[in-house]
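Attaching the record inline, Q. Sequence:
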Amino acid sequence: MLRLTFVILSVLSLLGVAGCSGAAQPSAVSTLTVSDAWVRMTAGLAEPAAGYLTIVNHGTADDALVSASSAQAALVAVHQSSMDSAGMMGMDPVARLDCPIGGTVAFAPGGYHLMISGLAVQLEAGDRLELDLVFEHAGTIVVQADVRQT
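Structure, as predicted:
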């Protein structure tokens, strides 16, 4: 009985030490908030929709948006609108969008946006579209985006 008690106490002691060693090391934490998510109403299923939102990094580590998806769309991609030297508006895909510590990344018409294509349903004002945003450190954040007529 004494031997069993000694073994149990030894194991518990080792577990306690192991638990303390991990807690003593500081770790960077990504704490993101996503707000003001909305999507433009589309004229038809063949037309892609544009999504907008705001990401704020309240954490102690930089993070990055690395992908996005929706169960109601074949493809959701991050794009950035820009104007070339001839005054022509265009857009380019963005594979990784940095979200620095203390920073705000705003998705707005004429700038960053989510290009949502291959929609399974017609988006109408008042609907909501669920978007899954995948971040390098924070993981997946699910957002309910309001559909607006603009």
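The longest helix spans residues 2-24. The CA atoms of residues 66 and 96 lie 5 Å apart.

More tomorrow.
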